[in-house]
């Protein structure tokens, strides 16, 4: 079946809902861990279940290169291949491809994108049709349209041409989408230009996708306000009965602001990437457990956290593991960081239900930023 979104209640523009999938029904807003190469780094499927993970992501580009979509298809699809019985979303590979296309004007053409493999430098060519065909074989629950990912600094003229190309590519991809049990999401682009966001959203919705995502906001670390403006420009034109997904965003404050504006789904590599560098999310901001002050700190990463790491281990021990470059340290921090963001969305759902979302934001920001 196709995924279906059920709106339960609202608090301002924020939405409490349920996402019905082939692999279960899950509450929204939700945070989705990223399993780029058919694995969330250092975590087992069982550990993902323990942190209450629902949908997870895998990457079309990386799985196309290795092991190859045909191998995954022969294994019975991604769920069988990686032994994950929850829902899986595959991105289109567009973000990776555009980051690898060196000469943008030369490498991007109407048919698709030329680029070099990050593995061996081999010249490759990815089209909207091929991206969808790969995702059909991966057999994820949700596939993403292939879009152009222009830099946030692009001019209005460049961005307008990019938006129109993305719309043409979305239509081409939709025509070849052939997996009846897989949903296909459209992607709204347009940078920080209000007219282009509106154009992209309206025209993408006309194609009647199973869900809609907001793209192009995770590649600009300079301005949070621009990200929020892009949401404000896009979301009024997205149907209320379809899921809304903000791509590549996992900062706790950005999740809260996205929920307030009406986003249902978030994903990001941030929790596992931070973990590999010794950082942990806490209610009072991020901490670096490498810091010497944690050498004799025999308390959990965060008091009151229900994750496996916090229930069984101390900052002092995890610091020792990280300093000694033991992979168990990165695993424990990954478990905690993913659970932190999932717990955050659980609390946001509760705040929406109680109509106390703005009060929740105020209290969270006061604790997290110390201001």
What this model shows, in words?
By secondary structure, the protein is α/β, with parallel strands linked by helices. It has two domains: 4-268, TIM Barrel, CATH 3.20.20; 269-371, no CATH class. 44% of the residues lie in helices and 18% in strands. The protein has 16 helices and 15 strands. It has helices spanning 45-50, 60-65, 69-74, 78-82, 94-100, 104-107, 128-138, 156-176, 194-206, 224-234, 252-261, 270-276, 308-312, 315-323, 327-354, 357-369, and strands at 4-11, 14-21, 24-28, 30-33, 56-59, 88-91, 113-116, 123-126, 142-144, 183-188, 211-214, 244-246, 265-268, 279-280, 287-288. The strands form four sheets. Strands 4-13-12-11-10-9-6-5 form an eight-stranded parallel sheet. A three-stranded antiparallel sheet has the order 1-2-3. Helix 7 crosses helix 8. The longest helix is centred in the last third of the chain and has 28 residues, at 327-354. The mean pLDDT is 95.
